[in-house]
Amino acid sequence: EIVMTQSPATLSVSPGERATLSCRASQSVRSNLAWYQQQPGQAPRLLIYGASTRATGIPARFSGSGSGTEFTLTISSLQSEDFAVYYCQQYNNWPPATFGQGTKVEIK
Amino acid sequence: QVQLVESGGGVVQPGRSLSLSCAASGFTFSTYGMDWVRQAPGKGLEWVAYIWYDGINKFYADSVKGRFTISRDNSKNTLYLQMNSLRAEDTAVYYCARDAGGGSHYYMDVWGKGTTVTVSS
């Protein structure tokens, strides 16, 4: 099973600032990585797939990069609606599909 | 619009069974693989099961293998999860999700709002 590790667990950022979230895989997942956003009490929402492709309707301030074992989600200028929990998920080696434990982006 | 609506959650005693449903609309259900993903209270996301577009192949997390069964009825645009021998650790919000793959698991691009399952005596 591929283990996904996200860091940091919590990121405190001021509105308008940049946020950089990391996700590391225990072995290569090539570019088969997705990012999801989850607001409190809501279902997850797909942000990025293929490590760097934004899903339909996702603002350009969200960008993904990386391949192999190291990945990054960057939010260029945080808006109020971006404070949420973010999960990475690999779909290269499955079953099982595996998620990271999440990074909470909170208001500083 | 594309929509997934789960139902069937509730409170159930350990060892008992429960069946979840997920009604799909707004897309051609029969061409997409489908997933169940759960989230225990205050915890992260855990993939539970995946079924091919045609229902022929099914895959499970080790934590539910042998106890849960995923199925679908493409004539009714509905996904199911039969959960048997429930345990306290199965307590979670269960999400139905559309998979971008039809015959192989990819990422999940559409999610339902979830249904809550509580296993407690």
Tell me about this structure.
The complex is a heterodimer of chains A (108) and B (121). With 108 residues, chain A is mainly beta. In chain A, 0% of the residues lie in helices and 50% in strands. Chain A contains no helices and 11 strands. In chain A, the strands form 2 sheets. In chain A, strands 2, 4, 5, 6, 9, 10 and 11 form a 7-stranded mixed sheet that branches. Chain A has a 4-stranded antiparallel sheet with strand order 1-3-8-7, with no helix packed on it. Chain A is globular and about 35 Å long. With 121 residues, chain B is mostly beta strands. Chain B contains no helices and 11 strands. In chain B, the strands form 2 sheets. In chain B, strands 2, 4, 5, 6, 9, 10 and 11 form a 7-stranded mixed sheet that branches. In chain B, strands 1-3-8-7 form a 4-stranded antiparallel sheet, with no helix packed on it. Chain B is globular and about 40 Å long. The N and C termini of chain B lie far apart (39 Å). The model of chain B has no long low-confidence stretch (mean pLDDT 96). Chains A and B meet through strand 4, strand 5 and strand 10 of A and strand 5 and strand 10 of B.
Low-confidence stretches of chain A: none
Beta-strand content estimate of chain A: over 45%
Principal-axis shape of chain A equals globular
Tell me the greatest interface: A-B, 23 and 23 residues
Pick out its properties.
heterodimer, A: 108 residues, mainly beta, four-stranded antiparallel beta sheet, 11 strands, 0% helix, 50% strand, B: 121 residues, seven-stranded mixed beta sheet, globular
